[in-house]
Amino acid sequence: MSDHVKNASIVSIGNEVLSGRTIDTNAAHIGQQLRLIGVPVVSTHTVADRREAIARILALTASEADIVVVTGGLGPTDDDLTRQAFADYLGVELELRGELLAAIEALFQRRGWEMPLKNRIQACMPKGAGVLTNDWGTAPGICAEKDDTLFFALPGVPREMRKMLEASVLPRLRDFAQGQAVSVRRLQCYGAGESTIAEMLGDAMGRDRNPLVNCTAHAGVITLEIVAMAAGEPEAQAMVASEEGTLRGLLGTLVYGVDEQTLAEVVGLKLAQSGRTLAVAESCTGGLVAKFITDVPGASGYFTRGWTTYSNEAKVEELGVPEKLIETHGAVSAEVATAMAQGARQRAGADHAIGITGIAGPEGGTEQKPVGLVYISVDQADGTTTSRHVFSRDRSSIRLRAAQTSLNTLRLGIDG
Amino acid sequence: MSDHVKNASIVSIGNEVLSGRTIDTNAAHIGQQLRLIGVPVVSTHTVADRREAIARILALTASEADIVVVTGGLGPTDDDLTRQAFADYLGVELELRGELLAAIEALFQRRGWEMPLKNRIQACMPKGAGVLTNDWGTAPGICAEKDDTLFFALPGVPREMRKMLEASVLPRLRDFAQGQAVSVRRLQCYGAGESTIAEMLGDAMGRDRNPLVNCTAHAGVITLEIVAMAAGEPEAQAMVASEEGTLRGLLGTLVYGVDEQTLAEVVGLKLAQSGRTLAVAESCTGGLVAKFITDVPGASGYFTRGWTTYSNEAKVEELGVPEKLIETHGAVSAEVATAMAQGARQRAGADHAIGITGIAGPEGGTEQKPVGLVYISVDQADGTTTSRHVFSRDRSSIRLRAAQTSLNTLRLGIDG
User: Do B208 and B168 lie in a common domain?
Assistant: First the structure.
C-alpha cells in the first residue's frame, strides 16, 4: 500500500473468546494503543483455533490493512495453531530455532521445572520470519511481511501481550506511521434527527474526505465526529477547527456541546456561570430529569430541589396545581405542565423550572391522548414556554426523549 | 455445508465501533443467543463503513459458517453501506420496494414529521433478497442465501437489533439447528459480592457441569445463569428447576428475582399485590430511586410522589426535617435520613417511604464523612430501619449502589 495514512487490522485467535467464556480485552487495548500513535483500525476479527480459518483471515487483512496485529494461538497445546497458519499463509515451512529452544529451556530451568516436550513447538518459526522476544512467558512472537503488509503475532495472555506490544511492536510502528498526525473533535447536537442533520450538512458528510465527519445517534443526541489527518499536529488541529466552524454555521443552535458533554452538563455550566438556580417538577419522567441534572458533579450549586408528582393529589398538594385545571384539561395537558413549572419555580424560589407531564405507556393512552404524548414547560422570569410532543417507541425511550427534550428546551431558554 | 453442527459468524459494521467510541454489545448478545439455541460461533468480525470491505467479509464468512448475522450500516446516511455491499456480494442491483417505502413514510407520518429524502434508501433491497420486518424503527433487515450460507442483516441500533433477532432470526434458526434442547433460567441476587456468592455455591459453580451455572455482576446485582442441555425440552427444564432449588436453598433471601427482573420490579410487584403505596425522599441519589421505580409500567398504582431535596432548605421545607437536626448532625447523617423517610411517608400519606442522604462526590468528603458515605432509611407502620453504607468508586457507582440498596432494603422490609 502506498502513500496514504497507514492503518491496521486486529485479529484475535481462540475458542474461549468465541464461546463467550472470555471477554476479549486484547483487541480493545491494541486498538487504543494504535489510535494513540495515529494508526486507525479498519477491522477487527476473532476466529476459532482452526488452521485454515486463521490463514484465511491473514490473507483477508493483508488486502485491507498495512499493519496486522494477531493475538493468541501461540501456546504449547494442540489447539494453538497460529504458527502453522502463519507458515501456510507465507507459503513456507516451520523450522526449529535452536536459540529459541535454549531460551525456553532456560526459562523452565529457572522455575525449577523440566520443559514438557509440548513446549518445543514454541521454538518453531515460519522460515524467514522475525522473532519478537517474550521476556514475560514462553511464547515468542512472530514478525513477518507479505503483500505490503506488516504482521505481528503476539501471545493471547493479556499481560505478555501488553508488554510485548509496548516493547517490540509500538516502537516499530511509530516509525512506520510517522509523518501523520490525527486530530479528533466531537460536536453534540440535539433537536433534529440523523437524516435531517445529514441533509443539512450535505457534502460535508461525504466519504473519503479529510477531515472526515462521522455521524452517530443515541437517545436523540446526534454526535458528529470530525477526524482530520495531516503531516503535523498543528495542521490537523487547524483542519478540525475549520471544519467545526463550517458545521456550526450549518447547524446553528442544534449544536449544544463538544466531546463527551451531555445536555445536563451544558445546562449546568450555563446555570453555574450565571449564578441562577433550577427546580424540576416531573410526572411521566418520574425523576429522570433530576437524575440527569444531579449526574453532574457540583449540581448542588444550582439545583435545589425536584418533585416527582406522579398522582394528581401530589400535583395539587406539592406544586399548587389548581384541581380545577386537572379536571378541565386532564393531568396530561399544556395547562397542567405550565402550572407544574410555575408552581415548582415559585415553591423553590428558583430562577428556572421545568414541568413535565405525559403518557409514558404502555397503558393509559387514548385516541386523543396517545402513548408518547408529553407536554414540556420551562418557566423563568421572562415567561413560560410550553410545548407538545409525541415521542415514539417504548416507555423507556419516551421517558428518555422527554427528559432530554426538557433539558434542551431549558438550554435554548437560558441562551435566549 | 453438510450434515454437521450448524455454526455461525457475526459481523458488525461501523466506524464508531472501530474508533473505540462505541462498545459493540451487539456481537456479544447475538453470540449468546445463538449459543443458547445450540449454534456455535466460529468467527466475529468488525469492519469499517466501506462497501468493498463489507462485501469482502461477507464472502469470507460464507466460506466458514452456515449462518451469518450482520448488524449495522442500514441507516439512512451516506456512510450506511451494508445494503449496497450485500447487493455487490450477491451480484445483483438494489431495487426500491414500494411497500417498504410506504411503511417508512407511514412511520414518519405517525410521528408528525415529513420523511427526509435520505430515508428512501432504507426502502431499497438487493434484488431477490428477503425482508426482515422492523416494527421498532425505519430500517428493514435483509435476508439472503448464497454459497450454502444463510445471511441476516439487522440494524445496529441495539434495541431494534434485539427485537428483530428475537422476532425474525432466532425462530428460523431454531428449526435449522434442531436436535438439542437448551433451557435457561436466571436468578437475580442482591446483598453480597460475586466472590462471596461463589463461595456460598461451592461446587455448583464448577466448569463443564450440566447444568452449568454462569455468574456475572453488574451494578451490585449478581446474576446466576443456569443453562441445562438435554435431548428434550421437558428434561432440560426439569434439570434447570432442580438446580434452581439447590441455589435458592444455598442463597436464601439474597435471591430477589428471576430472568430479567429488576429490584424495582420486584418491589413494585409486592406493593401492587398488597395494595400498599410508596413515597421517596432523595438527596445524593437525586431522583434515581424515583426513576428506577417509575421505570416499571403501572408504577402509578403504588408510587404517588417523590422529592429530590438537594439543599438543606428543601429538606426542611418539603419534608419537615427539623433545622436543628441538620445543624446538630449534618445533612448526611442517620438522623436526617430517618427524618426524611418519616417526613416523606407522612406528607404523602404512604405506607412505605425511603429516605436517602449521602456524599456522592467527587467533592464534599471529609475524614469523618468520606465520599461514598450514604445513610438509607425505610419507614413503615411497624417502624423505621436506618443503615449506614460506604460505597466505593465514582459518583455514578455510588449513586447507583445507594439507589439499589435502598430498594433492596425496602424489599426485605416488605417481606418481613
Answer: no
> Under an 8 A CB cutoff, do A294 and B310 touch?
yes
In a domain, A157, yes or no: yes
Lowest model confidence (mean pLDDT) among A68-82, A278-292, B206-220: B206-220
Give the rounded distance of the alpha carbon of B185 from its chain centre. Answer: 16
Q: Are residues B196 and B323 in the same domain?
A: no
Instruction: Identify the CATH number of the domain in which residue A224 sits.
Output: 3.30.70.2860
Check CB contact under 8 Å for A207 and B44.
Answer: no
Same domain, A296 and A409: yes
User: Is pLDDT of A119 > 70?
Assistant: yes
Residues 382-401, chain A, touching B (beta carbon < 8 A): 390, 392-393, 395-397, 399
Chain-chain contact of A43 with B45 (C-beta, under 8 angstroms): yes
Mean pLDDT of chain A: 91
Pair (A16, A134) in one structural domain = yes
* Mean pLDDT for the stretch of residues A67-83: 90
| Residue where a domain stops, chosen among A217, A240, A258 | A258
Residues spanned by the domain of B111: 8-176
Task: Say whether A18 and B31 touch across the interface (CB within 8 A).
Answer: yes
Bridge partners (DSSP) listed for residue A355? A281, A377
pLDDT of residue A183: 81
Q: What residues in B contact A399, CB-CB < 8 Å?
A: 294-295
CA distance B121 to B70: 18
Domain membership of residue A1 (yes or no) is no
CATH at A65? 3.40.980.10
- Check residue A2 and give its pLDDT: 38
Question: Chain A, 167-226: which have a CB under 8 Å from a chain B CB?
Answer: 193-196, 198-199, 205-207, 214-216, 223, 225
The answer to whether residue A98 is domain-embedded is yes
Q: Is A313 on the interface with B (CB under 8 A)?
A: yes
Question: What number of other Cβ atoms are within 10 A of residue B316's Cβ?
Answer: 18
Q: Give dist(CA B152, CA B173) in Å, integer.
A: 11
Q: Is residue A3 part of a domain?
A: no
Q: Per-residue DSSP letters for A157-207?
A: SHHHHHHHIIIIIHHHHHHHTTT-EEEEEEEEEESS-HHHHHHHHGGGG-T
Number of domains in chain B: 3
- DSSP letter (8 states) at residue B301: G
Confidence of residue A91 (pLDDT cuts 50, 70, 90): very high
Same domain flag for B268 and B132: no
Residue A29 near chain B (CB below 8 Å):
no
The domain spanning residue B280 has which CATH number? Answer: 3.90.950.20
- Interface predicted TM-score (ipTM) of this complex, two decimals: 0.74
Pairwise CB contact (< 8 Å): A207 & B310: no
Q: What is the pLDDT of residue B228?
A: 84
The Cα–Cα gap between A147 and A59 comes to: 9
**CA closest to A312 among chain B residues:** B304
Q: Please identify which residue in the block is written with the cell numbers 447507583.
A: B400
H-state helical runs in A48-92: 51-64, 82-90
Asked if B291 and A291 come within 8 Å (Cβ–Cβ), the reply is yes
Residue ranges, chain B, pLDDT below 70: 1-5, 20-23, 175-180, 206-208, 416
pLDDT at B20: 67
Are A350 and A233 in a shared domain? no
Statement to judge: residues A247 and A109 lie in one domain = no
Is the pLDDT score of A243 beyond 60?
Answer: yes
Q: Which of B156, B176, B196 marks a domain boundary?
A: B176
- In this prediction, residues A23-37 reach a mean pLDDT of 82
Cell of residue A3, nine digits:
502513500
Contacts of B159 in chain A (CB under 8 A): 393, 397
Cell of A35: 489510535
Give Cβ neighbours of residue B397 (< 8 Å, ≥ 6 apart). B219, B391
Say if residue B16 is in the same domain as residue B57: yes
User: Do A297 and B116 make contact, defined as CB atoms within 8 angstroms?
Assistant: no
